Amino acid sequence: MAKATRRAWLAGAGASAAAAGFVAPARADPIQLPDPPPGKALVVFYRNLAYAAAALTFMVREGQTDLGELSIGTYFTLVADPGWHTYTVRAERHDNMQIELDADETYYVHFELGTGVLLYQPSLSPAEQWQFLQDSQHGLRQTHLASP
Prior knowledge:
By secondary structure, this protein is of the alpha/beta class. About 15% of the residues lie in helices and about 45% in strands. It has two helices and nine strands; from the N terminus they run αββββββββαβ.
């Protein structure tokens, strides 16, 4: 491929990726989250900029209640009562994550995709604050504030 043609192709590919929203932004400042309200817990659900099934969006639920959607590079927060909670994401199969929340604490839940027989398989797993802060430096954006 000639140099000029290759440069034009690479520039076009980069522009297409940027237009689709799949180019990681420059390092961003870490996200500052508020403390949970007194007597409540704060749960932060996030999906980093991993490109597996980037165009797919997944709904996080508790029982029949939709809490929020996670697409590539997004997060949302949920204020919840202390106690046991079961959060679910679905595709070809579903994944449940059960967690006990304590008052006045913040919890981080990382969304990941694995491969299934036909579709990508979503999963939720506990994360640490440092993992969320590290991923947030690559440009996570808030989708909305959940309120069940």
